[in-house]
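User: Predict the complex.
Assistant: Input components as received:
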Amino acid sequence: MNNGDSKAHKVERRTIDVVHQGLAKRYRAERRFRLYGLSAIIIGLLCLAILFISIVGNGYKAFQQTYVELEVFFDPAFLDQENLSTADYGGLVKSTLQTMFPEVKGRSDKRELYKLISPGAAFQLRAMVLKDPDIIGKSISLWVPADDDVDMLLKGHFKTDVGESSGRLTDKQLAWIEQLQEQGRIKKKFNKVFFTAGDSREPELAGIWGAAVGSFYTLLVTLLLSFPIGVAAAIYLEEFAQKNRWTDLIEVNINNLAAVPSIVFGLLGLAVFLNFFGFPRSAPLVGGLVLTLMTLPTIIIASRAALQSVPPSIREGALGVGASKMQMVAHHVLPLALPGMLTGTIIGMARALGETAPLLMIGMVAFIVDIPRGITDPATVLPVQIYLWADSPERAFVEKTSAAIMILLAFLLLMNGAAIILRKKFEKRW
Amino acid sequence: MVRKTVLVVAALFVLVASTGVVNAQSARDYISIVGSSTVYPFATVVAEQFGKTTRYKTPKIESTGSGGGFKLFCAGVGVEHPDITNASRRIKQSEFETCQKNGVTEIVEVKIGYDGIVLANSKKAKPIKITRKDIFLALAKNVPDPKGGERVVPNPYRTWKDVNASLPDVKIEVLGPPPTSGTRDAFVELVMEEAAKSYPWIKAMDKKAFQAVAHTIREDGAYIEAGENDNLIVQKLEANPKAFGIFGFSFLDQNGDKIQGSFVDGVQPTFEAIASGEYPVSRPLFFYVKKVHIGVIPGMEGYLNEFTSEKTWGPDGYLADKGLIPMPDAERMKYRADVNKLRVLTALK
């Protein structure tokens, strides 16, 4: 500052002046820096918003389904009392349509008329008759699902101005639909089928319940295996194992495994569980085992971090009043570390729920209609169902895909929310 | 306490696992089907129909691709191996031999119909009339020298007009399947190879050199591998009217209000044109059955019967509604008879 009389004019420049001079620049730099951070967050949120808007915009209509009201006369001529389960229910639907549209003549016209109603109508009638054979001979008015093309038309997904040859519906069919609308015999209702049925190649009959149950069994196996194994491994490594080269090596390997691409675990599962042990293909059991391998490193790492955050004084206190090492762990350290372990486990489970790549190798990417009833039945999982629907040619599967994504996101939110609540409720800070 | 829990869980796991193994080895009460993703949309409809109208369980169908399907199918006989494999091409000699070697000696071959491969663009643009030779010149990596002479040069064409003056002055941009896809194999065989053969001097090349010319698709951005998802291609075509896409006919059939098929060699890809064989780019679809599994796995006969009945694969059947091109009457009768007699495939002609 005051470095000599020869530079007397500079003596007047005090530190504070230098600071003031640069202050505006520093403030600007800080504002810019904050702006960078803010814009990063805004861009992220914007992308998320676009994703959500497009998924919800595409998918919200899938929760409604078009139904047509039919006046069905359960004609004894179609329903042979001996063989009710194999009777011609399709024919029954067709004859019902004919009585509703008596003016329709000619083979190809009739075929077009029948196409307005989903093949599911026949299954619905079959179920009704099998449940209560007394309705044979009676006339009942009931709502049956419309074909997916009709559904798409009423939801406004079809361009109707492109001419007869290219649209999915002919002019005649459009006229019939209008006629039904005037009679109030066609309307959109809540799509219960979507939440209760398994997969189907008819979009109006396809549901996610089968995939949801498959996901449940798969995650059940994963949870039952990965949580105890992961926690036990973490406790041993953290509390009992000596620090030496071997434990270092194991630690490095666990950290490495956490970053291995999931498809590799699928290949391992194919080689070990299917080819060597001979477990059934496409079963939640094998899916769960593979996902266990995948989530174990995550759970071990999270559990070890939770154990490390328990202060040494707790351990010393327990040992000091004469607890054995095992009592110290089981009675004092583990209960305190458990919330952190659970959080890690739930996050690992959430990742496992969204996984498809390893399941590809073990045959869980498959068309499965029947709802799985155990861990060895063939099954598929939610993200695989999304993938399969996204690949289907029928237009109506586009909205089904988005709706299934919404369901999957809801489950993920639920699981991550549970993790946060657990942490907030039980976490202790020292 | 912790140790006890671990022990209990381990014991449970062993128990569950062993029941699983027992289950897997003793019986399987559903049909297991693997194979082509092109046949998948048709086979699944039949499987669902079969499952809902009979007392049997719905067959399980995995979409593994034709090659992957044969690999699993030919691995051996027994409940842990699939019963049926779908294929968008005929079984290869090498695959047939693998099957024989692994004890899968009795295979029944069933042709189910045809599938057209289309070159399509958005309805917002005009449809184009193109020849297979034009497509080859637009998409091959190396093409015959446009200046003349019997040699190939790296593809110099940038726009469709460069290829053929009658085509629009639009940059070549084609979205198509990756090399792992059966659709790509069929496209290469039916379009690229055929067009390459129309040059006598390319046809006269030895097999390796011929394949290098006819099978290699350009990699400079004009051909975009769009993954196996054909719906994605349809969406991209709608967004970009200048682009073209290559995919199976069923996707054109379902999206007729958004996209249109190009005329290939003067014929538009319609249901009738493919069925009559007029449209040049179509291929047969098959499935293969392990004969020894019939009678062991419940429902096999029923599934075969469902698939080969007129209400399924006939011209008015429900597979035609899904975009499968039915075989001519005589051919359907022949394959139906083959299935009834369970005629075994002895050798590839």
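The mean pLDDT of chain A is 88.
Let me know if you want any component modeled separately.
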